[in-house]
What does this fold into?
Amino acid sequence: MSCTRTFADVNPANGTVIAQVAEADESLVDAAVQAARKALRGEWGRLTVRERAARLRKVADGIEARFDCFVTAEVADTGKPIALASRLDVPRAAANFRAFADLISAAGLEAFQTETPDGQSALNYAVRKPLGVVGIIVPWNLPVLLLTWKLAPALACGNTVVVKPSEETPATATLLAEVMQQAGIPDGVYNVVHGFGPNSAGEFLTQHEDVNAVTFTGESQTGGAIMKAVAASLKPVSFELGGKNAAIVFADADFDEAVAGISEAAFLNTGQVCLCTERVYVESPIFDRFVDALAGKSGGLRVGSPMEKTTELGPLISSQHREKVLSYNRLAREEGATVVIGGGVPEFGNSLDRGFYVQPTIYTGLPESARSVKEEIFGPVCHIAPFDTEEEAINKANDTKYGLAASIWTTNLKRGHRVAQQMNVGITWVNCWFLRDLRTPFGGAGRSGIGREGGVHSLNFYSEPNNICIRL
Ligand code: NAD
Ligand code: 6OH
It folds into this structure.
């Protein structure tokens, strides 16, 4: 099978081309789907749960055995700091496989003993069946972490998959194919097609008649396009989408902990995490002090080469994305923002000047109605506003069409608990951010998603219950 078109994979830290990538046309996507369908009927479809779990654990071992390769590939594709890829992305890829190997091994069956009208009984029990061929479409910000977050439960449930990684970050999904093969995952179970969304591999995959379900992480607008594409064939979807996440800092918060936590929540991965905080609400008595402290901490983040072990902030993913972030910086100024730090492009005096860097940026002074307070920017940018009452903070935090995540900073746990329950989001952190337990429900409310993954929620999405009723 050959591809006639290729596209360039660019290193965002210096603009150099890392690789030419083969773009899958419609016939190649079809071949991948047919391979996946065929593999359902082969050895993979006959494995016991225990055997499948054992192979997933081998995949985890295989990722760890090639840890440095995964880190290097992820860093080159995304420009994320090597320290971050080593501490977050690649370990989580291995952990995702182990977690779902454990979860599927421990999963029970739903069962009911049913009384029948004639005084006898019946036994109902639901077995899990794979959905079949699952299409997985993922973004560029945490490529291998987000891919494996969907892939591991899909395989644990016995499905086969066709994966469409982001056109910006094709490397680690490709590398994973080698690990799969070495771990004894049969041919055809894990298929990768490269390309773009509309009129390319992404759309061909979502429209394919023989794909049984689509799981997607990316922009809310793309979620809408995929929903239209799957409507005709009524495929189930799981969507993890965008956010405009708020943090609420009460005056009684542990000040230093809150400053460190918000700095991480706003700027990790150069602000390119769906969970990142772009709106910070700080109780009035500590507002000025908090703004100064956050500016001091965040202004001191080390922006530089992703390959330097001490670098804390790399570039944005592409020049196009940088243009989007800078256009929001211009908009925020037009809307009346005070720039506390950043707002521009750093200068290095070396090859990094050809990379897609921006400065960590903090604003104050915007009205809640400003577009830059309402729309997802997905860069190292946050706006800080004061509040006077708990109710005001809750209302402001909830005044968004999105609903992915929130964080609350207070030493009063009664208040933390009370406010957390009023957040219209899928995930609320109290005195922490992005602290993950893979068994918990993960996803968004409103325009931030459809459905939940994580733990049993993933098993429920990636499998179909077949209820068996036996008259006793
Ligand atoms: P994107 O929606 O532009 O692209 C995501 C993927 O979808 C890519 O692989 C792309 O090629 C593909 N795609 C685009 N159009 C398509 C179409 N019409 N049909 C099929 N596939 C299509 O998102 P992005 O720019 O890569 O990622 C950033 C966005 O992802 C942000 O909005 C961010 O908040 C969101 N995100 C959400 C989560 C979450 O868990 N909720 C996690 C990470 C990122
Ligand atoms: C979004 O960019 C981050 C998503 C994180 C997860 O899906 C996860 O499982 O931690």
